[in-house]
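Attaching the record inline, Q. Sequence:
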Amino acid sequence: MNLRQIDRRLVTIVLIVFVQMLGAAMILPILPLYAQNEFNLEPQWITLLNTTFFGAQFLAAPVLGRLSDRRGRVPILIVSQIGTVIAFLMLGFAPNVWILFFARLLDGITGGNFIVAQAYIADITPPERKTVSFGYVMAAFGAGFVLGPAIGGFMAASFGPRIPYFLAAGAATIVVLLTVFTLNETVSPEQQAENRIATQQGINFKQIFSQRTLIYILLIAFFIQMTLGILQSTLSLFTDAVLLPDATEERVQIGLGIIFGAVGITQIFTQGFLIRRLLPRLGEMGLIVLSGFLILIGLLLLGSANGVAIAGVSSVLFAMGIGLTLPSINSMATTVADESIKGQILGVVQSSSNLGVIVSSSIAGLLFALSPRFPFYLGVGVMVVAFVPILLLQRRLVWRESQQSTSEV
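Structure, as predicted:
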């Protein structure tokens, strides 16, 4: 893509997502230890912090998406980002466990701003370039994921466990300012009024289940995010127990840094470069099929890995599969329904994804207690099941194309 052809607003959204993820990722490596050392939380309560966040996001994402259709993208972005700033400050100043959980609840509710950002991109991007544009956003997401944990860990070790939360709040404040001063509204007042009428009752189950294509998309998002939830919740434990069982804590951290760094770099490469090369050849559906095989192979290798090197390779394949899938799914979802509920549809897709993470995270912990390799074998089984809606969606799209060709004749 010629740089002169890139919409300035797309560049702004990419920058916003990067800064937002940079701030959020700062707390990823330190929150469990922060909860344990500062508040004496047991492991089962620490994992509930993650469940609280994704549970709140599961409920809030469709609501924020619907509000952005009815009230405009920019106001919802601003309000939700301010909520994120407050949540980070609450984590930094938290005097007790209840404030800690409330902060995660608030962050989950306002974390749906990523959905609104994607809806904004769908507004400004022609259909044939949506997948690539979503890929740029996910690449920014990956870049923040690479840098954020390293910055958060270093700052916590150097200046104390609460400092990264204040830095994350500062990054989120920058995002608010970028949104206020650089983004113009994409949903006109007339469109907002029409959307309010069209979405008076909100999106309901009848609307969802009346569209078979959307059902397949939601199922794919659910199963794909189940595999991601398995990896997120057990990879650190797996590294400590299996990949480096006799290593010191510092060496384990280095091993994890190598693996997560490889994942982040792969995300950047896949969504910033590779997807632009593969999309014209394979199409969105072809990318989803390819990504399914990559995720499946990655989980198989990871489940049988005995060292950091193999785990790194398998994680790269897994990350490449995730990187090819998510932009394609989001792009296809925006073309399924009427323009008036675009934000709602993306919110529902996000909720389906979050539900996958919630389910898999709870199951993975129980399976890990039985055997450290069982969660990844579960992931393999999940991906095998995921190929059912993938193949059904492919068949559905072929049928739709044949119907359109027939009607044109």
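The first helix runs from residue 8 to 26. The two ends are 34 Å apart (CA to CA).

More tomorrow.
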